[in-house]
Structures are given as C-alpha cells and as structure tokens.
C-alpha cells in the first residue's frame, strides 16, 4: 500500500500530464483545421488538371508524348514514404511503416531505394538494409511548396536520367478526422489516362501550339500537383490522428486521476481510523 | 454566355457565367465567346479580361498556366491570378530585382528556367499596373 504522500505525488504528476495532452490535442485540432482546408483547396486544381490531361491524351494517341509516360524494364525501384516528423500520433507511423514493409517484402536491396519524407520513417529505416537516397524532414506539419518542388525535382530527375525506373508513393488519404486510408500508388511513370471513346469522340480539340508542347508544360506541374496533394492529405491525416490519440490520452489521465483520488481518500480514512484506535486503545489501557 | 472557372493551386478564384473572355495564350492573346471550338493552350504571364453576364469588365493579372474550353465550359488553371488593382507594385519591383540578380548568378544553371519565369512574372505585374495608372 503506497503511502499518502506517494499517492498525492502521483496525482499531481498525472494532472500535469493531462494538461500537456490536452494542450497537444488542442494544437492538433487547430493544425487539422488548417490542413483540412489545404486539402480542399488543392483538390479542384488537381481535378481540373486531370481533366485536361484526359482531353490531351485523347487527342495525342499512340506515340510517346512525354518522357514521364515511358515504361521501362524495372532495374531499380524507388519507394517514397510519407510519415510524420513527430510522434504521439497513435499508430499512424507504425501503420505506414507496416505498409512500406509489406511493399518491400521480397524486393532486392540492390534494386530498391528509399526516399523518405518525415523523420519517423527515417528513424526506422536508417539502420536497415535499404539504401536511402534522401530524407526530407522538418515539415512541421505544414505544406511548403518550395520543399515539395525539391522533392519532385529529385524524383523526376532520377527518373529521367534512368537512375530509377519506377517510383511508388505510400501516403495516407484523408477521409475524416477519425479516418484515413493508406495508399500505395505509382508515381512515375504516369499511367496514361483511359480515354472514354463515347465522350471524347466528337470533341476535336485545337491545340496551341501543339499537344507535345502542352504536355511538356503540363507534366512537371502534374507531378508537382500529385505530390502536393499527397502531402496535404498526409498532413491532415497526421493531425487528425494526433488529435484523437491525445484526446484519448486526456480521457485516460482523467480516469486515472479519479481512481488515484479514491485510493488517496481510502488511505487517509485508514490512517484516521488507525490513529483513533490508538487513542481509544491507550485510554482503555489507562482505565483498566 | 458560357461557364468560366479559374482555379489556382490555392483556391477557386472565379466561378460563373461570362459573356466574353480574353486570355494570354502561349501563341498570343485570344478571345473566347460562346460556342468557341474546343481548345487547349498554355498560358503565359499577361492580362485576362473578363466580361461577365452584366457586361462588367474585370481585369486580372495571370502568370503561367493552362486554358481549356469545350462545350461552353472554360477552365483557366493558373499558378497565380489576381485583380490588377491588388498587385503590390513594390513587391513586384523587388521580385524583379531579385530575379535579375539570380539570373546573373546562375547563368547556365538548371535553375535558369525557374529564375526566368520569376522574371517574366514580375515584369508582367509591373507592366499591368503601370498601364492601368496611365
């Protein structure tokens, strides 16, 4: 049975822990709101870009119109894994790493390389057999376009020079505060959009200057937009998960305080009873 | 009348019915009226003129992007769009100076296109606002 003082100390420490988790929950909620807005802002642009890509592909059929579409024999593969920089967000990172592990299963280390976004993924992979090309860290849970551009430049550069032949992206898609979905999607080469014949048949587009020239402009932006979307969705999922995890921690701390307080009161009662017994016992001994 | 949507990576900038539209295509300015033939073109920094359904004229500054029109739906995808009256001249001048310095530094570097684009954007902003003030 812990002493009164020990219990009191525990209670105080749990109260301060609850304060911290409560604060973190609130910070995560604020960040989530911002990140969620970002996701909604990026979506229309990305959808319109997809739409133009489909129209273009319908017009320019057959030959290879942009190097980003080039499918090669895979001699080297790259996995891009988006995790968070910081912990305390429940099973978010371990789920993602689990997904990455499943993808890496049976791949040859000599033919596979990693590009990591977020420190948590790096912490896990730095001592493993896979080659890490680069780590992009310190995002602070915010979307930074210049940084996203750096990531895209690295990836497209490696793809175009043949250092890698296929790039896969693992990230989380934001559904709601409590839900996200892990996605493993091919990043490069870009899949040629499927053209719906019935819809596009009667649309004879005019291209100025030419489909090739427009593709040359469009594809780098397409690559950037896809990356930005993935990052925005991942950050929103991260904040959502953290908010839930911290909310649960706050609740648990509250329950713990309740049970500790009960324990404290019981111990206090016991002490009082014991003291009373001593006094009564002493008085009776005198009378006798 | 036809539908026009202007989107940037940050937001939907404009959505509505318009009577006419002039955009800076990569091959030169082009006007769009109702029932325009399907067209896709690149957009370079310049001025977008919209005549909305009450025939009020709106003038926007635009940087790089794409423009698509088909069956009376026009979409302008741009890196950035702003009302000319919202352009910050001081900032544009500073950006121009920075871009020029970078170009001088970089000569031949892979970042050249990026700096050149920055230069074109800044020039466009300054030109737009100065033509407005005259």
Major β-sheet annotation of chain B: 9 strands, mixed
Q: How many discrete domains of chain A?
A: 2
Low-confidence stretches of chain A: none
Residues in helix, % of chain A = 55-70%
* CATH architectural group of the largest domain in chain A: 3-Layer(aba) Sandwich
CATH superfamily of the largest domain in chain B, please? F0F1 ATP synthase delta/epsilon subunit, N-terminal
Calculate the terminal CA-CA distance of chain A, rounded to whole Å. Answer: 34 Å
Our Rg estimate of chain B from Cα atoms comes to 16 Å
- The protein's oligomeric status is heterodimer
Number of extended strands of chain B: 9
The pair of chains with the biggest contact is: A-B, 24 and 24 residues
Q: Order of strands side by side in the largest beta sheet of chain A?
A: 3-2-1-4-5
Helix percentage range of chain B: 25-40%
| Discrete helix count of chain B | 2
CATH class of the largest domain in chain B: Mainly Beta
**Termini separation of chain B (Å)?**
32 Å
Indicate the mean pLDDT of chain A: 89
- The CATH topology of the largest domain in chain A is Pyruvate Kinase, Chain: A, domain 1
